[in-house]
TrEMBL record:
Spans traversing the lipid bilayer: none
Keywords: Aminopeptidase, Hydrolase, Metal-binding, Protease, Zinc
Protein name as annotated: D-amino peptidase
EC number: 3.4.11.-
Listed GO MF terms: aminopeptidase activity; metal ion binding
Active site: 115
Binding site for Zn(2+) 2: 8, 60, 104, 134
Record has Hydrolase as a keyword: yes
Pfam (any one): Peptidase_M55
Amino acid sequence: MRIYISVDMEGITGLVDADDVQPGGRDYERGRLMMAEDVNAAIRGAVAAGATDITVNDAHGPMRNLVPEALHPTARLIRGKPKQMLMLEGLAPEHDAAVFVGYHSRAGALGVLSHSFMGHEIEDMWLDDRPVGEIGLAHATAAAIGVPVTVLTGDDCACTEMTEWDASVRTVAVKYARDRFSADLRPSEEARAAIEKAVAASLAVPPKAPAVAAAPSALTVRWQSASVASTLLGIPGVTSSDSRTVQAQGTLPDLYRLFGVWMRVAASLTNQPPYC
């Protein structure tokens, strides 16, 4: 059984602030270790269920957060950037299941460290007119590749967002948001035991591959900066509905890859701290 694990950082056990998740932050080094422990719990669950091939993608920020030697020896690590497939780099139809560890809620939600991909540079996103953030877009793209998402871990807001998107995905709340930079923390050992148990249970019966939709999807993004939207109109197929909102149509995962190009353009034009 081949398992793919995409790991973000904002939804990791015990982390609540930018200093926990940004390189150079006073608690970042501790955050990296906490990140590895949550991932290792998911790996142990996958191994217990019979997984023999496990790929972990470091999907947060610089994508060099996980310390390789701190990772469970069973797993292979995809590290660094750029990555054409962003948070899903390395995901392939041959994978039997995907697990999302440490995910967070979308921009505008009152979840811990909530945002959509680029701090507050992205104000809103929609996939086929449905509000979406990192959770929904990654889930839809994995489904288009033919891989079911079986577990998501993060704060309670991220878990609610996942359930609203796809109620069949098991969720593990490792903390409960009090506000955007505060949370009621679940004890670390308890949270990791819950992650391990959820992953093992989700893989106990071989997951069913999702139906792959052939119809094009529409992705719409509202940016904080009109400059970003204006520049993106230079990309063939990108249109605008107002000075800060652009959209494009295409099939996933190609649309997800195109969105990665949009973000690289936006990053070249802005210099916004992620959690202002």
